[in-house]
Design a protein that fits this description.
144 residues; mainly alpha; 4 helices; 0% strand; extended
Amino acid sequence: MHSVVRASLTLCSSVYLLTSFFGFLLFGDDTLSDVLANFDTNLGIPFGSALNDAVRFSYAAHLVLVFPVVFYALRVNIDGLIFTSSRRPLVVDNFRFASITIALVGLIFMGANFIPSIWDLFQFTGATAAVCLGFIFPAAITLK
């Protein structure tokens, strides 16, 4: 699993860096905070529609690569949080594996359908991460 995580993180990081770098080279000072939003318009360059399609394809490939890695960690952590006293590993217990997977996929599907803007979720995640990095993690390290 370590090699899969490394490969996925390397590929996804390179997609992020290349998208932002070439997006800035293409749009200059008119680059929006969400670089991908710039690709919704006519670029006015030769092969502009092909470039738009390539960017959309690379973003879809990024989602395909990163979701299993994040979902694996989420499933294992939820299992450890709910079933702390279970002696059987999650890989062996098919019912527990399937029930956690179905519940998480359903929850993610509902969130994807009913959260109106991804920026709301980013703001919540950013605020939570800032509090964790600033207050909770240093205190947890000190207590350990």
